[in-house]
Structures are given as C-alpha cells and as structure tokens.
C-alpha cells in the first residue's frame, strides 16, 4: 500500500496592506486564486474549494517513483507554490536527505496545475504563496516483500 498525506499548512495573518512585489498568503487576500471548478472567490467556502481542488489534483497526479520504492526512500517533502498575478505557478520543494527523487516528483505534480484565476487584494491581482507537506510513505509489507525477493 502506498500512502500520500496532504495537509494544508496553517499560516498566520500579517499586514494585508497592498504592496507591489509582495507575495501574500491565501488568508491575506480578498479573493483566493480559483480553479475552474470553484465559483466562489471570497471567504471560507472559496478557501475550502481551493484546498479540495488542490488535494484532488495531487491525488490524481501522484506517482510514487519506482526508484524511490526500490531504494526505500521515504519522507516529507515541503512544497511551496507561488500563484503569480497571471495565474501561472512557480514551484519549489525541499525533501528528506537523499530524497531528491521525491522532490522532483513533487515539482512535476505541481507543474501540471492548470492556470488559475489570480488572487486579488483591493481589486488588484496579487501573487500568493501556498505551502504544505506531502508525505511519501511505503507500507512496510511492500518494502519487506521486495527485500526478500
């Protein structure tokens, strides 16, 4: 059994005064970036839809790299995406020691994101940052089977 855990990070609110070249948190903007399936752009429902669609995207595109399975590479990868003012994304990931293969797989997943309707603050498009962990974990029985072969 393979497992992927996706947990949206809780970030603290900061000053939400509009500043050019600042990257905002989802909780700081008036309108969150939207997936096509989300129609409400403000409030808790908008954030819930964003998180739900992001989780669906990751689950749909998640693939545990075969080489990582064979080498028993597991661990948490911290993903940071920036949704730019044009709706495109910039992705970075940091994983466990010797986990560059997990980082590469994570970045590949997020580069497949569709363009977003950008976030807005004071009716102006602003870039937002979204950070959360993805846990790559192998079931012990599948690892033991491979070692016994």
What can you tell me about this protein's structure?
With 149 residues, the chain is an alpha+beta fold. Helix content is 30%, strand content 26%. It contains 4 helices and 7 strands, in the order ββααββαβββα. It has helices at 43-61, 66-70, 100-111, 140-148; strands at 2-6, 24-25, 75-83, 89-94, 119-121, 124-126, 128-138. The strands form 2 sheets. Strands 1, 2, 3, 4 and 7 form a 5-stranded mixed β-sheet that branches. It is elongated, with a radius of gyration of 17 Å. The two termini are 18 Å apart. Residues 7-15 have low confidence and may be disordered.
Secondary-structure-based class equals alpha+beta
- Strand content is 25-35%
Q: Could you list the spans in which at least 5 consecutive residues all have pLDDT below 50?
A: 7-15
Give the integer mean of the pLDDT values. 83
Global outline: elongated
Rounded radius of gyration (Å): 17 Å
What is the helix tally?
Answer: 4
The helix/strand series, from N terminus to C terminus, equals EEHHEEHEEEH
Largest sheet: 5 strands, mixed
Kindly state the percentage of residues in helix.
25-40%
Number of strands: 7
Q: What keyword list fits this structure?
A:
5-stranded mixed β-sheet, 7 strands, 149 residues, two-stranded antiparallel sheet, alpha+beta
Would you spell out the secondary-structure blueprint of this structure?
Blueprint: E1 2-6, E2 24-25, H1 43-61, H2 66-70, E3 75-83, E4 89-94, H3 100-111, E5 119-121, E6 124-126, E7 128-138, H4 140-148
């Amino acid at each position: 059994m393979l497992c992927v855990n996706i947990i949206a990070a809780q970030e603290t609110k900061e000053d939400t005064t509009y500043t050019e070249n600042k990257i905002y948190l989802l909780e700081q903007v008036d309108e969150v970036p939207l997936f096509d399936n989300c129609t409400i752009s403000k409030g808790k429902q908008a954030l819930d839809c964003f998180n739900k669609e992001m989780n669906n995207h990751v689950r749909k595109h998640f693939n545990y790299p075969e080489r990582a399975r064979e080498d028993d590479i597991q661990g948490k990868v911290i993903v940071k995406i920036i949704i730019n003012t044009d709706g495109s994304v910039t992705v970075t990931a940091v994983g466990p020691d010797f986990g560059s293969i997990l980082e590469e797989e994570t970045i590949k997943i997020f580069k497949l994101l569709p363009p977003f309707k950008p976030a807005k603050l004071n009716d102006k498009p602003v870039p937002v940052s979204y950070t959360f962990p993805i846990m790559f974990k192998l079931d012990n029985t599948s690892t033991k089977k491979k070692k016994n072969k």
